[in-house]
## 1
Amino acid sequence: MMYQRERTRRLHLKDVANYVHLPITEAAKELQICPTALKKVCRKHGMLRWPYRKIKSIDRTISNLQRELRSGTAEGATKVEARISRLVAERARICAGLPP
């Protein structure tokens, strides 16, 4: 028990950032800590919510926009491409553990 507390005390967002694409329960299993401890680590470093759902939403939006570009139904292809690049940058920022 003491070992687990010491390990969670030393966790940083850069350690957790590799797992934000997973649901919090799966990420906790991968890190071999309980979900509550993972939440505490995140809150300690300023991440108020687990970003899994936000990342999935961004991924869905990107794939929909790419499908529109391929089918040719997107009006203003440059605007769509710019939006895709903004979404990719936002996803990268979230995955790095930075606030949105």
## 2
Amino acid sequence: MQEALSFLDYSILQDNLQPILIIIDADPNIKGIKSFANIAKYSYFIDGQEVLFTLGSVFQINNIHYNKNNHLWIINMILCSDYNHKLKPIFDYIKNEYSDEETGLLSFGCVLRQMGKFNEAENYYRKFLNQQQQYDYQSQAQCYHLLGNITLDKGNYDLSLEYYLKSLEIKMKKLESNARSLAYSHNNIAIIHWKKGNKKQAIESYNKALKIWIEFYGEDDLKVAMCFNNIALIIRLKYLPNEHFDIGDVYNNIGAVHRYLGHYDLALNYFNRS
């Protein structure tokens, strides 16, 4: 602690900033924690005792208090297991709300999006994309897909379509072994076409997603049901007025599928339309 405090002697604080000391209790014997290591021998400082934590580690704040003697705030935290912490229900919800390929290091952007901070999430994804290695095609495809989600939320359909197509291009050219992820791209491209009024292209993209999901999950899967309902909605809207009760039935069916998939915000949206 004294070594950490010594750094404050060489720090110049701005008037609107407060010094903070974070004390972390990390037990390597706890099951399910992210890896961490003592990297003191690589430290620039001869007597330094530095520990490197894996990106994505989860910490629980136990106490925050102000130290009058040292004129700083002290935060006491513990390193948590991935299986036992208060945020686990939130992370589980995120995994249900988004496809499997949208979690991991990009999950922070998903949290920002869930909070409605679309600009912050978009900036995070852009920075993440710029920092990726040239041949990390998996992360590039994921990031473009998530940028498509954000711009879709913001109503910028042209840019959203551009991102989804870029993600699809990378998947098709560089990630041939992960054919299942193509369905998510085709599905979201269909959503964009539908919102832009391109009904024929929307049905074509939904059918591409449908074919892949049936191949991987069978005909009884909820994602397959969602695809059929979306296609049915496009066709019925073509021939029936918006207020027709058959349209309401389709909205209700789509809402039910999203509810079972754990997409509660989308489910509520479609139930309200119904």
## 3
Amino acid sequence: PDAREFPVTAVPPRWFDVFGVRPTTGRAFTAADGDGVAVVSQDVWRVLSGGRRSLEGAHIVVGDRTYSVIGVLPRGAADVVIPMPSEDETAKDAFPVLRLAPGATVERAQAELDALARMLTARYGEPEAPWSLRLHPLRRPPDQIDDTQKAMVGSALVVLFIACVNLAHLMLARGLAKRRELAIRMALGAGRAAAVRLMLAEGLLVLIGGVALGAVGAVWSSRFAQNLMPPDISWVSAIRFQLSWRVFALGALAAAVSGILFGLVPAIRVATSVELTDPLKTEGGTTTGRRRWRYSPLVIAEVALALALMMGGGLLLRSVHRLRGASLGFEEENLISAYVGANVAVTGPPRGGRLDTITVDWARALTAARSIPGVLDAALEGTAPTSGGAVTAELTGDTTRVINTVDYQVVSPSYLRVHGLPILKGRDFAAGDAAGQGVAILSAVAAARLYPRRNAVGHMLKLGSPRSAAPWIPIVGVARTPIV
């Protein structure tokens, strides 16, 4: 079958127990299964299985390795889950997730972590870069809603209030316009309760139409927001805008309750004000000056809130427009990025045993890219191997300065030239710089932090703490780049 691309997550066997995730079909892998098994989500299994229900003989191919599928996770879970190698559990970019035991408190757990951090600092760390372990809940408590979320909830409540006031005004105007009709109905034997029910029924029709339009708008806006996300950023694929039926049900219930409450008042008001003599009166007007004055403050408040929302929405749209047009620190026009990743496919039992390992000759790949008509130049970039989570800069003699890493990458010599990043001091990368330990070019911000009031060119740095085994790398230049 054709290969399909899905995000792959590597986790230890304890991950399923810590997060409380249970497969709906099959089972989760354990430490005894080794590293040749995998678990997939229902969405992936439905797309790739070809309609089969049995897991027997099902395999997935990740890169150059084949994994046996032993379980299917519930919908919405990670797409493909494979065992994490034991050595990766101690890697720098791995972070632990804890589930507190019954009766344990966050304060007690944090105290134990503080003691562990002090021990790690004394044994492995540096005084200027002590270890720090902090507990953070994966799900934010309700009392920790930030200002942005409060503003969004407040805006939604204001919109709901304006809609309710509009509905009340609509029903009031509709009722005043139907005074003669209601009076005739009452003269024929209908009660005032029937008039209230009639007006509420009309209001409910408007409410149902509004809820339907809101549902269509929610579907459209979620797809629109997903399309606005830049697809060439790796973490964007993990963000999915999904509509929740719980949220929709809560919104529909709030709309129904608020619509009935705000529609009941004008309905009762109109029904109780109708007189049987109204058909004999002229239709010179629908309301008196006193009634208009009575509802004027409500109209003024509604208009003021609507104007405030319009101004806030306009400012938000202007900010989004500016952010989309903001400079990324390099010349992004006519710049195309390509990601080389692993494809995943569901297959039957492997026929030829182990798959052939795919290797890439990056030099030939760059040459082929440069030979494409219209391509001026090409470059490579990749994540640098981390060592200790810090950058150590050599100042003078044995004096060093340590800062936390902002970002650093391994790039080919033509990287800065392709991105249009000028060299401020020193020189650009050269073809022979990759030999040996390599060289480094700092951003202007990193150079100012590591070497304030002095020239960084000619000094040495290492990607790690002073005691780490990372090699010292000479600094050959400073560039106007957002990357260290």
## 4
Amino acid sequence: MRCSVVPSSLSARRGRFQRGSHGVSAAPRRRRVLAGPGLLPSAPLSPGAQPGPRRCEDAAVTPRPSRRRLLLTGLPIAGLLLLGACTDEHADAGGDGPRPGGRPGAGTTAPSDEPSSVCPVSGVRIRALGTNAAMGLRALGLELTNCGTADYPLYGYPSLRLLDADGTPIPVQVIEGAKGITSGFDAPPRPLTLRPGERAGAAVLWRNLVTDSTVVATSGEALEVASSTGRARQAVELDGPIDLGNTGRLGVSAWKPAEPTTPAPPPAPPQPSGAPSGATTPDPRV
């Protein structure tokens, strides 16, 4: 909105009445708003014209929304708030919300497997040490640890059971020693007594050979080991299948004391970089 100076001739003309179809009526009044101290002329004055009264240009008036429209506009917001309240009540009543006594924000986790540090009821823990393969000969190391609190007597050979991928036992011939498979593993067993924390070792041997094309090759996916026949077996983790080919034979050595591990020597203390620059060498004649 801005105000300007209007010539007197134009001012007089704007003051006349307008004639309508039903008689003489005054021109409709428009709302006038002063823009402020900065008044600029809307049109230049012609030479010799006298300045007339100031007029203000009509400003567009923004209509105010009716109260009914405001009430209707607020309905969706109220509906959303009501819907949220219903959702919260449903969650508290038995939805997926937290249960009483539960920790907020905690998800449901599946039960974890039994950690390897837990000692079995038998008092010993058996694990596989990995497979060594060379020239078709396979050797799988076994380690038995007395994890209990009492001495554990041990004698003889490990008891083995080979399983397929479905957990079905595979019929194989287990040879005590390695006769017919390799040499050097036929040492006879001797009685052992493992104190708590002591270990014993053995080895499982086989060859991946296919000598008869009419016999289906055998490959075991799991192995269960007991300290001796008649004792509880434990599943050991393999780093690969036990591929027997069609030999159908497994050799196993007798238990023997595990090699003691030699602790690493402590690191030597750091040597001084050199004598101080101000030090003097003593005279041997003194």
